[in-house]
């Protein structure tokens, strides 16, 4: 084995995810965990019961079909038609692939589409698995930096970043962690660039139902996009069952077949009984989705107001579970040091956005808090944080 490092060079520097580190800190200190974005209340009882029923009835206890159970694939296609219209018509047999969460759909897409040396443009701060998946595929990530206070993408800059080596745009809207939601104008401009430069596009839409301001429209529905776009979503955030890991990739049959080729050698299949339950969840009435958004909007405001009162500079998000803040008003500059000390100082865990940037300056003093928690938990966290200012 000589002196060669165990971890290969592609994964060098990826270490432990910040969520594991901060959640361990929450457990060790008993602090309120507003770091990792998982709800502290399970999703609908009817959906939980559907999973129990599937398990008891022996549906999904053995390997389900590779692309996912037909009931779920039909429900996914139905969900796209219901929320995004006929332009997003999908054939459940060829255009839908069920995956082990959105995470596997992202990984399989990168492994399927990228050659070593290819460039992938993605918004920075990145969702943490993007950098790892692009690296595992041997490709190079190229950040399009979203800057406070608006976090709007600079589309002239995007044009400049596209080179002959650019293979793919990996786009996330609503965007974790900044809460930015692409506008109609931005969607149109991005789609035009993708078409002009003949790029593949992978869209991470896991917060499609968590939009407070503006609207969510899948890029795949724009002219010229269908044949180049793989859309990814998941049951985790929409139905508050993040532990079930049921996600999906959607698009033209040839794109989905390529993703399936990689996916079949990662997990092959997963989450058998949960797939049946998620099929039912996707058919919940519109009121479910409206209530989810309204609940989270209230919680966003509760936490954002609390953080403002505690002295943070608050960037109120247009979507997602997260509010990004700046700690500069406290005279502090280092979000990572701040987050490591925060549980001791006041019993709250948050995540430094700085770790999601390649550009160390761009997010150095930004801290992210999750608000997908019970109102009483958010109020208690806000009370604790109010002691910070001194
Ligand atoms: C939570 C999250 C994911 C992962 O989704 P899973 O279905 O849990 O794998 C992917 N992308 C973003 C932006 C997320 O916030």
TrEMBL record:
Entry GO MF terms: kynurenine-oxoglutarate transaminase activity; pyridoxal phosphate binding
Keyword Aminoacyl-tRNA synthetase: no
Aminotransferase class I/classII large domain mapped to chain residues: 31-385
Pfam families: Aminotran_1_2 (PF00155)
GO (cellular component) term, any one: cytoplasm
Family classification: Belongs to the class-I pyridoxal-phosphate-dependent aminotransferase family.
Protein name in UniProt: Putative succinyldiaminopimelate transaminase DapC
């Amino acid at each position: 084995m000589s002196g060669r490092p165990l971890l290969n060079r592609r994964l060098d520097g990826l270490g432990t995810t910040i969520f594991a580190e901060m959640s361990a800190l929450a457990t060790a200190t008993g602090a309120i965990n507003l770091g990792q974005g998982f709800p502290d209340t399970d999703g609908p009882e009817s959906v939980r019961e559907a999973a129990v029923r599937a398990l008891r009835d022996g549906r999904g206890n053995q390997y389900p079909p590779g692309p996912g159970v037909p009931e779920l694939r039909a429900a996914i296609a139905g969900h796209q038609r219901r929320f995004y219209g006929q332009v997003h018509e999908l054939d459940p047999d060829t255009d839908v692939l069920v995956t082990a969460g959105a995470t596997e759909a992202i990984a399989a897409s990168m492994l399927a589409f990228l050659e070593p040396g290819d460039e992938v443009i993605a918004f920075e701060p990145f969702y943490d698995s993007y950098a790892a998946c692009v690296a595992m595929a041997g490709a190079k990530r190229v950040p399009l930096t979203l800057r406070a206070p608006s976090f709007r993408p600079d589309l002239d800059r995007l044009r400049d970043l596209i080179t002959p080596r650019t293979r793919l745009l990996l786009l996330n809207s609503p965007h974790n962690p900044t809460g930015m939601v692409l506008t109609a104008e931005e969607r149109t401009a991005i789609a035009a660039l993708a078409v002009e430069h003949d790029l593949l596009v992978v869209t991470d839409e896991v917060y499609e139902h968590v939009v407070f301001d503006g609207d969510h429209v899948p890029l795949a529905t724009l002219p010229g996009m269908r044949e180049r776009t793989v859309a990814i979503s998941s049951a985790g955030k929409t139905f508050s069952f993040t532990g079930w890991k049921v996600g999906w990739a959607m698009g033209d049959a040839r794109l989905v077949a390529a993703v399936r080729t990689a996916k079949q050698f990662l997990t092959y299949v997963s989450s058998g009984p949960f797939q049946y339950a998620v099929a039912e969840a996707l058919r919940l009435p519109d009121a479910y989705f409206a209530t989810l958004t309204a609940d989270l909007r209230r919680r966003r405001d509760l936490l954002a107001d609390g953080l403002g009162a505690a002295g943070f500079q608050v960037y109120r998000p247009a979507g997602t579970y997260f509010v990004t803040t700046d700690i500069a008003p406290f005279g502090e500059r280092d979000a990572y040091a701040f987050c490591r000390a925060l549980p001791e100082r006041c019993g709250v865990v948050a995540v430094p956005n700085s770790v999601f940037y390649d550009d160390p300056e761009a997010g150095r003093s930004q801290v992210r808090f999750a608000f997908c928690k019970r109102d009483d938990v958010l109020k208690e966290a806000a009370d604790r944080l109010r002691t910070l200012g001194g």
